[in-house]
Write a structure and sequence with these properties.
The chain is α+β, with helices and mostly antiparallel strands. The protein is built from 3 helices and 9 strands. Strands 1, 2, 3, 4, 5, 6, 7, 8 and 9 form a 9-stranded antiparallel β-sheet that branches. Strand 5 and strand 6 form a beta hairpin. Helix 1 packs antiparallel against helix 2.
């Protein structure tokens, strides 16, 4: 982000210099540009300091933290939010999964994009590799796309502690490596 701001400031300085060369105000335009670059740099440093302070406080600066939602028993469609474009709900379901709430216990069923993710673990990749870790096994789901094409993909039943709260969900790919991810479920809509 800081590099992008500095690059924009440099482009602005170049443009101002070119415009300033056409008239008699090249000196004041150059001074104004240098002041603008200093202002942008100071703002960027302040933003970075604020983000670091928020991170130390345990706050998430990337998205507004939503309040946890208490759901009554039933079946809901929810958005399955991940930190990766490679790990997501199948496009046939528009990024959504099915959340079942029974006696206060929530379970998300999400069909993924393929069969390349072979296991999930609620927790970190390091914990998934420990003895006794409760590894989630896939189901084979058949999805139908908008063009009528059907495909078999893996789906998973994932225990969820709370709606609108991120949690660790590690995945195991076909190459045998565990990867850490943060996920959440949001926007519950009760099925009729």
């Amino acid at each position: 982000m800081k590099k992008r701001i500095l690059m924009l400031a440099a482009v602005f300085a170049l443009a101002a210099g070119m415009l300033g060369g056409c008239g008699n105000n090249s000196q004041s335009a150059s001074g104004s540009v240098n002041e603008s670059i200093s202002d942008v740099s100071a703002q960027s440093e302040a933003d970075t300091d604020n983000q670091e302070a928020d991170a130390k406080d345990g706050q998430d600066t990337s998205e507004a933290a939503a309040e946890p939602v208490v759901l009554e028993d039933g079946v809901y469609t929810v958005k399955f939010n991940t930190d990766s474009s490679m790990f997501h709900a199948n496009e046939a379901y528009d990024g959504c999964g099915t959340l079942t709430v029974q006696n206060g216990t929530m379970t998300l069923h999400v069909s993924l994009a393929s069969k390349h993710i072979v296991n999930l673990f609620v927790g970190t990749a390091a914990d998934a590799q420990k003895d006794g870790a409760q590894i989630l096994q896939p189901t084979t789901d058949t999805v139908t796309y908008s063009d009528g094409y059907t495909e078999e993909v893996y789906g998973f039943d994932v225990p969820v502690e709370a709606v609108n709260q991120k949690f660790d969900l590690a995945l195991l790919g076909t190459k045998g490596t565990w990867y850490d991810h943060k996920v959440s479920v949001s926007d519950p809509v009760k099925a009729e």
